[in-house]
# Entry
Amino acid sequence: MRPFSYERAHDLASAIRAASHQADAPLHAPIQFLAGGTTLLDLMKIDVMRPDRVIDINPLEKTFSEITVTPMGLRLGALARMSAVAHHPAVEREYPVVSQALKLGASAQLRNMASLGGNVLQRTRCSYFRDTSWHECNKRDPGSGCAALQGLNRKHAILGTSEHCIATYPGDFAQALIALDAAVEIAGAKGNREVPFRTLHKLPGDTPHIETSLATGEIIVSFHIPAGAYARRSLYLKVRDRESYEFASASAAVALDLADGVVREARIALGGVATIPWRAVEAEDVLKGTMLDEVRARVAAEAAFAGARTFGGNDFKPELGRRTLVRALLEAAALEIR
Amino acid sequence: MSVQIKANGDMIGRAVPRIDGRLKVTGAACYPSDVVLDDTAHAFLVMSTIARGRISALDLTEAQAVDGVIDILTYENTKGKVHKVRFFALGGYTSTSIVPLDTRKIWHDGQIIAMVVAETFEAAREAAYMIRVDYMERRAVSGLDGRKPQPRAAAGFLSSEPGVGDPETAYQEADVKIDAYYSTPAQHHNAIELYATTCAWSGDQLTVYESSQYVYGLKNGVAKQLGIRPERVRAVSPFVGGAFGSKAAITPRTALVAIAAKRLGRPVKLVATRQQGFTVSSYRAETQHHIKLGADRSGRLTSLSHEGWEISSRADDYKVAGTDTTSLLYACPNVATHVNIVHADRSTPGFMRSPAEVPYMFALESAMDELAVKLRMDPVELRRLNDTQIDPINQKPFSSRSLIACYDRAAAAFGWAKRNPEPGSMQDRDWLIGWGCATACYPTNIGPAEVRVTLAPNGKARVRTAGHDLGTGAYTAIALTAAEFLGIPLEDVNVELGDSSLPPAPVAGGSNATASICNAVAHACEDIRERLARAASHEGALRGVDPAVIRLREGMLVGADKSEPLKSALLRIGFGPVEGHAKYTPEVASVPIKLLGHTLLSKGIPVLTVGTSAGNHVQYAFGAEFVEVRVHKRTREIRVPRLVGAFAAGRIVSPITARSQLLGALIWGVASALHEETEIDERVARYVNKDLADYMIPVSADIRDVEVILVPEEDNKVNALGIKGVGELGNVGTNAAIANAVYHATGRRIRNLPIRMEDLL
Ligand SMILES: Cc1cc2nc3c(=O)[nH]c(=O)nc-3n(C[C@H](O)[C@H](O)[C@H](O)COP(=O)(O)OP(=O)(O)OC[C@H]3O[C@@H](n4cnc5c(N)ncnc54)[C@H](O)[C@@H]3O)c2cc1C
Ligand code: SF4
# Structure
């Protein structure tokens, strides 16, 4: 860790103002917001992130941690803690995929600290990214190369990759958001804007160090998940090497609107396999209007991974991903909805 | 000294919670990493980021400018300061022959190339990040490719190579044959307590606070490295937050911290980070195995050959050579073994819990299961049929061997009889169920130990020896033994360990400590009893009673139906405490150990009698392990909801802590089968997953039912108290039991660890 100054934000506007004038992409910026700190402090300790100034936004928690459930949908403050949302009775009942994605993430201690805003902005677990003794990492050091391409890449992505970066987006909650067509409300120097959550994360392309569409100084203030007939019949399936406290090798967020076994609408997002939270639109299209059975689920899964590219260590992931999706779809179809 | 050491009270074997438990859970136990002395400066290591080559330039300018930096040790100012000390496996002290900060040469990734010392840990760390290093890098080789069989021509190195008969011919003629390759990955101990060292000088007297499994080795080894007399060094390590072999030999860091402390004239503390820990000490290197088994149609083994390949560094010939064990496990008349060392650009490997048995028994016990499948025979019956009370190599009897009793007890507890042997035949909804088993075994090692016991007139005892409690329960086992032989309550015994100013005790390695130290404690207590008894036979209630029949029981001296309170007996022989002293040499020790054992012990050189060097017999502890695995029928996650292990290891001194050892070992076995693997980027021979997020071990949610059964066993040949060790027994064979269960669940035989879901897709 390197020396930095620490200050507490008194209000949203001053926090934004303080951070707005910097040039770098937000995740490399010399001024960083501190929410739960479970990503930021971790990366500062291992010298991957080196901010000069850390602005603690927790004083804003009262205003920005509300959980509101209305017939229109669910609004979640960006400073709400993962555990608070995960165990909220209405979220558990009406949006099981949201609750489950949060409950299956990290550990109980981390969930008590970590905020939703920080969660969607958590950074990849690529080991080469997290260890600065590796020189090649375009995400950490633009233009330096990518050690993972021909290195150890069992954990790496197969969807949305580029020749510059194949790092997996590691989080779980974002899959639930993207599947349910959430919007994210962002406060910036020019006021607030609400954009589809799917536009928040950017494919690595040839700028893997630019991970989101946030402008410098912008703060995520809330997430809005619209109500939908499919939300109740939803689940998050996380397949991983151990039972808990581990990132997904493959995961699927699935929400279904079924009528007599026929899919009226399907919402599918995939985790552990892609560089960004991944919406599997092709698979949704395959399912729409069909009877959901094993064969159909498999066809949808084939469609979801049609564009997959593997890199040696992760050669198994397309098949694991397909099986994960099939299992999630069949389990969601079998749910008893009261 | 030949005395009738016989445990006849009810202390040894009593189920008591660990006596240091309260200190530990309240945080009162002071681990070496907790030590902060006045005016301490803090050190931070800088490690090489290449595996082979030379440092061409080292730029310290920016680092030196960091506020609070006091000193930076590099080869430029430290060269020649650390004397070369022999590698521990050659009878020396060090974990590696590489001398720290001695040259520009880089032998392996993560080699210490500088140490920054600053007023605070933070300043030292910041400065460490600012040191610029240029290398002349050469192409490095990481070693075995774990997934491909090695050609026999690999750089050879002969082990003792136990063998008998004509295995090749017997194999050709066998009715049923198995010929397979197996491999195990590199693994790191990752004890929760990091590698921490504080050095403080007072004049020319050095005190080293360092988490250690061998304070006498540390004291003597560091003295040699610094070129000072061992009397000048004291090593302190009363509590150890996990070690597993990694804190036995002295690592390069300690001498550097001592040198820095001397230069600065103030204490220096180093806590290596988790990542640095991967190369600060040793590790279990990857291994490969070629096993050939031949059997007749009834299942009787006729031929066994086991060839192993192991990685070592370029600096050292380290090997574990588990063929010493696998060659004598079953009744087989024709055995051949061979072990090869492959040198690579790696740090030197070293002991890690059951160093030899974990990898080698994985191979053999997997092959035995494959043989059972081929024979269409129950794997338990295959072990029963090939059980032996005679070591097939040397034709010596086992001192005791309760393998089949363990199998029977564990099988019954597990419900093995309900197993359908057909792979894939057992299911619970979406989960395939597999049941598997394997043999556990570990040699019974023992060494000389010296103990002082004092008994005060108030009836309170102090036991002092430089043994170690690594979290194993040594304090408790030793206290129980003293309470037993002094006939006093457990609360009245105070045990002092982990300090080289105490009488010497052996390295806490090879599961020898309980046997070595408790026998020594018994002798020291006997010394006290003898003196009290002799005096009591002259006057008082026991006058005229033969001292030999007088015992210490429940606070009394008792003999010939007479008794006298301990306190009055104590007062009779003086007003101060009475001291008993024992220099115990194992009954089974060889003549050279009998002659030289205590001299070497006081010099910190391990002198253990091992399973196969005990004279007229071989001595091993045994166990049988049964596991249930569940594999999801679609997504193939592998979980282990149930483990049952039955173990027979002679007299169990402290059943609760022994059970904890075995329980932890079984859990470690799950890790070793499914989780642990140090990943190596072979392009540059560097480790990639150097933290506990990426270096996987099971979490609580992975572990459900674990049952440990202690099978009674009496062995009066191993030592007077009949103690075998349990520390390393439990995690032997677990990985094979799991692989065998995975086969049963899925029909897939996985021969390379760890087993991951992709192996079963
Ligand atoms: C060992 C471990 C295991 C984990 N396992 C999982 C897992 O299985 N699944 C999973 O999903 N996650 C997992 N995580 C990640 C964890 O969920 C995230 O670290 C956490 O959610 C981040 O939230 P935070 O509030 O602590 O963020 P912080 O660390 O405070 O912030 C992270 C980043 O976001 C920025 N930021 C924070 N809030 C805002 C905001 N409102 N607006 C703009 N910028 C903001 C910060 O400046 C910083 O750059 C794990 C983490 C660890 C350490
Ligand atoms: S995958 Fe991305 S994060 Fe990982 S090394 Fe390559 S560029 Fe860096």
Residues 317-333 of chain A form the longest helix (17 residues).
